UniProtKB/TrEMBL annotation:
The protein, known as: F-box protein SKIP16
Organism listed in the record: Dioscorea cayennensis subsp. rotundata (White Guinea yam)
GO cellular component, one term: SCF ubiquitin ligase complex
Domain ApaG: from-to ranges: 296-434
InterPro entries, A to Z: ApaG_domain, ApaG_sf, F-box-like_dom_sf, F-box_dom
Gene symbol of the encoding locus: LOC120270086
Amino acid sequence: MEGLVVLDAILEKLDARDVVMVACVSTRLRSCAFDDSLWRRFCARDFGVSSLVAPNGEACLSFKATYELWNESFGMYPLPLVKRTKQCWEGISSWLATNFPEAKDTLRKGASEAELKLVEDTLELKLPMAMRLLYRFCDGQGTVPRDTSEHRRLAPLGIIGGYEFYDHVVNVHLLPLDRVVVETREFEAALGSVKSKRIIVAASYYAEKWFFLDSVDGQLYVGSNNVSINGEAFPCVPHTLIRPRVDDTRDVPQDALLLWLEEYSRRLHSGMIQVRKFRKARVINLFPEEPPSCSVAITNGVKVRASSVLVPEVSSATGDYCYAYSIRMSLQPEGCLLDGVYYQSCQLYSRHWIIKSKDDVVADVNGEGVIGKYPLLLPNGDEFVYESCTPLPASPGFVEGSFTFVPGRLTKPEGRQFKVQVARFHLEVPEYIF
C-alpha cells in the first residue's frame, strides 16, 4: 500500500503525457497511471477543471476522458495560461450571475480556432496568444440588436460598464469577433492610414469610446479625444506587466487584455465597482464605491461619498484632462444632529468646490444646489446621487469642499445652516483605465 502511495505521488509530479508513457512499462504502473483520482488532480492542476465536464459543456464519464478533451481543445497553448484565462472568465461570469444576470445572458459561447484564424486572415495580423484564449472561452457579448426595438434593452448591458454626466453617457461592451473585424476596419478607414496593428475589442454603446489591443506590443489602449485624428490613446495597463512574446526566460506570454480583465474582476468582487440604476435600467457603474478610491465624510449625521474617473475619450494624452465625479449623500438612521438636537430631515442649500491641478487652484466654485436640485435627505432614505465633470490642465489634482444644509426643509427651516464636509477625492490618471 505504501508503495502505491509513493508511485501516485511520483506520477502526480509528471506531465499527463509522460504518465501515459509510463503506463506502458508495467501492469502496476498502468494501474496507478489510469487511476481516475490521479486524472482528477491533473484536471484541476492544468485546467482548473473540478467536474466531469468537457469544454463544450457536455458530461464526461471519467476525469481521464475529461482531461483528454480539454487537452485536445487547448493543448496547443501553455497550460498555465489556459488555466489562468479560464479562471478570469469564471470570476467575471460568477459575479455577473449573482449581481447582473441580464448582462451574463449576453455572453457568447467561445470561438473556434478556425474563427480566430479567419479574423487573423481578414485583418492581416496575428492575434496575441492571451487574446486568442480569452475568445476561445467567450466570444464577447451578443448585444448588437437585430432591430431597433431591442436597442433599449441591450444598450445598458455592457459588462465593462461606464458612467454619465450631463448628456455624456458611456457603456462599454466587449465585442464579439465579427464586430471586432467591422470596428477595426472602420477605425482604419477613419484614420486613412496603412494597415493598423491595433484591434478594437471593446466599445461604448453611446458616446464614442474605443479600447484596442496592439497586436505587436501587447498593450491595451483607450482612445483620447484625438483618436480619430491621429490615433492618440492612453495605455490601460502598466507597461511593466506585459509580456507579449515568449523567450528563453518567459515561456508564458501575457497581453494587456488578460491583465485588464483580471483587474476588472478583482474590482467587481471587492465591491469597488457595482451595479446601479440608471434611467430605469441597471448598469455597471465605474465610479469607485469603496475607500481609498472613494472618499467618505460624515458631518452632523450627513454622509457624503465621492469618487472620480478619468474620461479618456474627451481628454488628451498630452494634457487637458477631463474627469467625471460622482457625489452620493445620505442621512444617517438617527437623523441630523445639530447643537445637540436631532432633526428628521435636512435639505441642501449650496455647494463650495475647490479644484486643484498639482499645486494650482484652477476653480473655486460657489453656487446654489447641485445640477439644479436641492435634495431633501431623510433617515434610511436612498442616497441622492449626482454626477458632474471638471477639466484639469495637468494631472494629478483633487477636489474638496463642502455643502451647506439646513435642518428641516428650505421652505421651513428648523435650525441654523451648517456645513457638511466633502472629503478630498483625487483626479489622476490611473494605472488601469476602464
